[in-house]
Every structure is written in structure tokens, then in C-alpha cells.
Amino acid sequence: MATIRQEDFIQSVADALQYISYYHPPDYIRALSAAYEREASPAARDAMAQILINSRLCAEGHRPICQDTGIAIAFVRIGMDVRWDAELTVEQMVNEGVRRAYTDEHNTLRASIVADPDGARRNTGDNTPGVTHIELVPGDTVEVIVAAKGGGSENKSKFAMLLPGDSVVDWVLSQVPTMGADWCPPGMLSLGIGGSPEKAMLMAKWAMMQPYDLHELQARGPASHAEALRLEIHEKVNALGIGAQGLGGLSTVLDVKVTEYPTHAASKPVALLPNCAASRHAHFTLDGSGPARLDPPDLSDWPKLEMDLGASRRVNLDTVTREEIATWKAGEQLLLSGRLLTGRDAAHKRLVGLLERGEPLPVDFEGRFIYYVGPVDPVGDEVVGPAGPTTASRMDRFTDALLAQGLIGMVGKSERGPVAIEAIKNHGAVYCIAVGGAAYLVSRAIRASRVVAFEDLGMEAIYEFEVRDMPVTVAVDSGGDSVHRSGPAAWKNRIAGIPVTTA
């Protein structure tokens, strides 16, 4: 009978969360590398290259893959013969492991968890509490899966109570386009079908911790209805042409998981959860002999790629004008240098509140660009920690008000909604995207950083970055043309064999 010590459990959780912050699972890297080699869309290929380069840098430098280091999730399967040498509950031990991992001075992770979610939304400061699922199983060991899920992919979770005769495939194909690029494709889609509503969601979440192995299923063929669904959904979702980062291309999803459970005769609950390009999870078993040991992956699985910046237009943010940005076209690649403001949800809400009350703004936005980002705290001699883009559409409702203050450019990730696009067009502004899932790579372009407003907001404060050759793509040009509309539409037609004249 194994005895599990409290300290061994806590430290194992902490070590695993640190591990997954900078190591992608090798199966994901192999799947993404294969998709990169197959990709025919230059824009999607470039985005995947940045994700792969970023991943290798993080593995070598032990810094987070994404600035959104996620909400911590633990699946704990406890053998019924296990004994505990512990004073804390299992959930409390998980939370202590989370606290240690996210406040580690050698690789500080971003605290993103807020208490009072429908009220003050106060940041807890150490990313606790996590979300813990406990199951009792036969045996005398404790099996643990820890994961870190970013908000961009979590926010695109879908659930429906379908009628018994409804098509799951048709429902998935109706939902994926509404998810856009906010979940940072290419990644995984996981479905839970059956049970009850909460069971379906839990099955889908658990299954996305399994390996990327669709290529094996393709090679041997399906042996069940669930496996046949995996293949069909994979093929038909990729035929939508959404592509990496929503830019249009051959690979939107690298794998599909389907888990089924018996359900009520009148029901068909279906959960659809995406796992983003920052696919982060680790598995370990405790048998009473001490804390878990997680060996580093073999970096020979990581391709050695370099950025190709030769075709990019260089832009000086300190001198750029509306006349200059009027010449940029959706899909064009840029390298930004100069002073770049930052701000996201909380800062935008506060700024618009000041405008509504007729109070002065703490920052002059005339002729400036703003980057939607909440960076990780720096360590060592870093200027800033990993600083990838956050979902831009959350700022759509604030866009017109800030463009009216002289702002001429924005940088974020994924598509903008019709309200924001109309505001961009009316003000002759521009919206660019950086690659979600390439946060450490992006941070290397940041040469200086200082807080200029709202310091109390922590990672949501307004900073001023000094950047040099920060790679971005024009997503919405000053005429209102959106690459997130034109790119997927063109590639959907190409995949279907319909001749097109635009890329």
C-alpha cells in the first residue's frame, strides 16, 4: 500500500506546471511540423513557422510558450488503496502547487485568475485557485494530469443539447466558423457526446490531454463510430480553409477527439472544446517513492527554422502617418520599430470611462499604435517577459472611441468584428496581427518597457514598449478589407477545387 506525502504531491504539481509552460508535447510538435511541410498558404506557413521557432526558443530558454499561462487544471485519479501523509485536502494541495509554480522567481508565470468574476474581478495574484477533478480508481498509485488552458481557447468552448436525430458533424461545422481565430489554430478539437451536460464538457476537456495521433487512425482506419467521426470532422473542418491564425490555409485542426457516454433517450448533449497552439499538459504517477520526475523532451523533434523577413515592409512607429498606412494592404507583412503603447480589456474600459466623464486621458494617443497584450513579468536581464497578442475582438466596443482620440493603429490577434472594422475604415486606421502562440519570439523584439498609466492593473496596465523589427501582418487595412474574410474564403474555394484569383 503506497503512502503519498503531501510535499511530494505539491512539488510534483508545481514542477509539472513549470514544465508545461516551456515544453510543448513532442506529439504536438510532430503534428504541427507535418502540417507546416504540407501547407501551401504562405501566410499560414509563416504563422506556423513562428510558432515552431517560438517553441524551440522556449524549450531552450525555459520561458513560457504563451503570455497567457492559463488557468491551471488538474485531473487526479486516486487509487483506492492509497494512504495519505497529508494535512491538506487534495484540492488544497493542487492549489499550493499552482501557487508555487506561478510565483517561481526563475520562471514567473502570469497570474490571470480573478476572484469575484461578476463583480470587482480582483486578480488573486498567484493564479489560484486551479480547477481540480478527482476520481477514485482501483490501485495504490495516484495518477495526475495537469494542464494550463488559455482564455482565448476556453472562451470558444461550445455546448448544445441536440435532438437525438441531429447531426453532430453538421453542428460542429456550424460552430467552428463562429470561433474564428481567437482559439489560435492550428490545434485540436475535442468533443464529448452523451451523458449529461456537465459530463459532456468534462469528457471533452479530459480527452484533449491525449496525444495527437490522428495520423495513426488515418493509417489503420476507424474501428468505431467515434473514430469515424474523428476522421470526418477533421477532413470537413480543414476544408473550411480557415487555416493557421485564421489567415486561410490547409490546416485548421491537427487532430479531433471524440468521447462518447450513454445518455437519456430524449437527449444528445454535445460539448466542443478547442485546444490552442499552446497545447500544455503533463502526466505523472506517484507511487510513494517521492516526487514525480519529468524528463526534458528530445529537441531533435523540433525543426530548426529561421524567420524569413526579406519581403516585409519596415515601419517607423515614431514617424508613421495616416497617408503611409493608407498604402498598406490586408495580408501585407510589416516589421514595426519605435514606440508602441499597450492596453487590453481593463485599461480600455477605464479609458472610455474617463472620456464619458469628460476627464483627461493619461496618455496621448495622437498618431500612435496600441498593442493588445498582457505580458509575463520579466526575469533576469529581460526587458519584458513573453508578450504575445491577446484577442482583439474584446476591444471592439472601445475601438471607435479611441480612434477618435487620434489612435491610428492596433495590433492584436485574430479577427475584428463588423463594428470595429467600420470604425477602422471611417477613421482611416489599420489593424495588424501578431502570431498567437509565439509570445517569447515576439518579446525578443521589445528593447525597452515602462508603465505609463494604470499601474494598479498589473499585467493589464498601459505600457510603452520600444520595439525593433516586430513582425506583424496587416489584418484590416484602412479601406476595411479583412484578411480574416478574404483568406479563408479563398482557401475554402481552392480546397474545393473552385478557381480563384486572389490569395
Account of the protein in words:
The chain is an alpha/beta fold. The protein has three domains: 1-24 and 65-149, no CATH class; 150-285, 60s Ribosomal Protein L30, Chain: A (2-Layer Sandwich); 313-488, Alpha-Beta Barrel (fumarase). It has 15 helices and 19 strands. Helix 6 (168-179) packs parallel to helix 9.
Question: What characteristics describe this protein?
Answer:
5-stranded mixed barrel; 3 domains; 23% strand; alpha/beta; 4-stranded mixed β-sheet
How do the helices and strands line up, and which of them pair or pack?
Elements: E1 3-5, H1 6-22, H2 26-38, H3 42-61, E2 71-79, E3 83-85, H4 90-102, E4 114-115, E5 122-123, E6 131-137, E7 142-149, H5 151-154, E8 158-162, H6 168-179, E9 187-194, H7 197-207, H8 214-220, H9 225-238, E10 253-261, E11 268-275, E12 281-286, E13 313-316, H10 322-325, E14 333-342, H11 345-356, E15 369-371, H12 396-403, E16 409-412, H13 418-427, E17 430-433, H14 439-443, E18 446-453, E19 462-476, H15 483-495
Parallel strand pairs: 1-3, 2-6, 9-10, 13-14, 14-15, 15-16, 16-17
Antiparallel strand pairs: 2-7, 4-5, 7-12, 8-11, 9-11, 14-19, 17-19, 18-19
